């Protein structure tokens, strides 16, 4: 397998490892946190592996410009790997893009339901989630038409659950629609990786199971106090995680964070996510941050093994997290609230 | 050597023991009003600082939400303003007080059937993360602070008018 892997994808694996080695280290983050203005941040970023990404920018330095340039660089790296890949890596790389497509579709559904201008909505879409039919969405006048006429021929179509009520899509919460699509995507991706076998199956099933559990716990906590029924909550929980069915059934009917914590305490690692959360009354370090830290750690560990597709998935995830960290640091500097600048998610690359 | 002694005029009104008792009361009232005015100014500045702090904290929380969702644009922005009509949960009304009119906040109970929706769910959907719930609490506290600010400003204006009237009255005597 390793010989066959290197013949087909060895170059791309080496390239991705090179990209990963160029990611920001702890010292780079320290430099960024000591910047006093956005111009300083841009100069510091240009001194890293990012290079002259702001070269053509003549506009006033702002967080949006920084975010846009970082995103363009990630898109370049992704597109290069994708365009030089062969099957089954090509399909695997497409799977990495589907969550962004789902987010874009959720954005468009939300906008269409409230009669927003399509041009404005298309500008808000993530470039990694763009697909050919995105431009054609403009012809849809309501979200039911969007699914029936436009998305039916897109990769997203297979993630639409058959029991999703199209006729009442206008009144359904867009976050619930997104949760259903994401669950279907995660389970399909899990099955695909399992079929690939070898190291890829071992690494990816671990990562995707963690992602599924994270989605379950996050949805259970966020749904506290809402009018979503236990049956509807259960439909949003992905089933490909480490949490058994009995845990999913229990969490779907709980309306208290402490009780959800008790269920999570039974399974190693998840109960610790809830520790000391009540001490942070400012809302800066939440459950989501704990999960992001654990996700970063797992994605870095992926690079310890060779000859599998997991490194492509992990690189994209780590790069996205790095972009988010830089944007967070930039926001703190722009808002002159540098006391929280160190609350970025550390990536243990050193 | 002889020392120059100023003549002592028993009727000199600048002497405290010879001043008019009615003027004395007026001056004491003026002192009280001036002190009250300074206290109000101090309270106003403290409230302004608190409002700025709360607003800054809320801005940072929004940046945190974007970090979690990995998006500079979240679906909630595509939904605002909401197409579905709803009624305001919080009303600001005017009431009479001893020195003038004051603002008061009335909070109505959540009742989806009558159109009184919970704001954070109405804007961000049914699955609201923790930091947005905390941001919502900051926002409600900010609302209380702003109304308090407005009331103090009104009281300050009223006190200044009283001071001016009293000064005019005392100068006329």
TrEMBL record, chain A:
**What's the domain of life for this entry?**
Eukaryota
| Gene Ontology molecular-function annotations | proton-transporting ATPase activity, rotational mechanism
The record's section on SUPFAM superfamilies has: V-type ATP synthase subunit C (SSF103486)
* Annotated keywords: Hydrogen ion transport, Ion transport, Transport
A Pfam entry, by short name:
vATP-synt_AC39
**Biological-process GO terms, alphabetical:** terminal branching, open tracheal system
**Belongs to which family?**
Belongs to the V-ATPase V0D/AC39 subunit family.
Relate the assembly described in the record: V-ATPase is a heteromultimeric enzyme made up of two complexes: the ATP-hydrolytic V1 complex and the proton translocation V0 complex. The V1 complex consists of three catalytic AB heterodimers that form a heterohexamer, three peripheral stalks each consisting of EG heterodimers, one central rotor including subunits D and F, and the regulatory subunits C and H. The proton translocation complex V0 consists of the proton transport subunit a, a ring of proteolipid subunits c9c'', rotary subunit d, subunits e and f, and the accessory subunits VhaAC45 and ATP6AP2.
What name does the UniProt record give this protein?
A: V-type proton ATPase subunit
Q: What is the originating organism of this protein?
A: Drosophila yakuba
Q: What is the lineage of its organism?
A: Eukaryota, Metazoa, Ecdysozoa, Arthropoda, Hexapoda
Q: What gene does the UniProt entry assign to this protein?
A: Dyak\GE23978
UniProtKB/TrEMBL annotation, chain B:
Q: Which domain of life is it from?
A: Eukaryota
Q: What is the lineage of its organism?
A: Eukaryota, Metazoa, Ecdysozoa, Arthropoda, Hexapoda
A GO biological process of this protein is: vacuolar proton-transporting V-type ATPase complex assembly
Region annotated Disordered sits at 1-26
Q: Where is the composition biased (Basic and acidic residues)?
A: 11-21
An MF annotation (GO) of this entry: unfolded protein binding
**What is this protein called in UniProt?**
Vacuolar ATPase assembly protein VMA22
